[in-house]
Amino acid sequence: MKQIKDSSVIFLKGLTVGASMLIPGVSGGTMAIILGIYDRLIHAISSFRKDKKRNAFLLLTFGGGAVLGILLLSKLIWKLVTAFHMPMMYLFIGAILASVPPLYRKSRQRTASAGSIVALLLGFGLVWALSLLPSGLFQFGEETTVWSYLMLFIAGLIVAVALVLPGISASYMLLMLGMYDITLQAIQAFHLAFLIPLLLGVGVGTILTTGLLEKAMQQFPHITYPLIIGFVLGSVLEVFPGPPSGIEWVICPMSLLLGFFFISYLSVHSSD
Hints:
Helix content is 78%, strand content 0%. It is an all-alpha fold.
């Protein structure tokens, strides 16, 4: 009974992460941290061979939920973002900020050191620098040539880094690569010639990135977690829609607080 409950929770968390991933500026890694499953996913990927059955079950359950979330719920969330743009963006900002306290606790330090401050500023600066890059910096078409397959694979490697690192939005990376619209179209049309090389790149990039990230989190938590916090805080720049106006001056702060306290509640009642 406990395993069924755990599986249902993992699936629902995957559903939530998947639904949020296609919204530019919202990081799947940050959402996974918020929901308290990020460390488990990183460990399952990096140490997959040590317990194949258990790790495969976790990844398939979470992955199944994420895929379903992308296919079913992303449109609903996108409609909400479109219809109630300002309140929803402030809700996301509150949710993102709520992930900072648990990340700081994971850094295993009571007071900030010079190294941790530098790491935080570096993470923030990298995300800020990404936000300055023009969308469509790289262009990929749907041509089925060896070169296009190779480029899609490389693009998948780049997206995987954004997918794994909290605070860096994979959807924003797709925008930067000029692939956001065409990827959404490929998902809706189930265009395998486009999706397979891209997903292969994402898979390989995820395996390579998670191994390095887990070692860094274990051996250098006082540097790695402040760096991640910098990524997370930097992602607020991508989500921030500007100051509200009119009645939104009342609604948006309430949305921010709602997102913050709701996610804080979830993080307290979630375990990695």
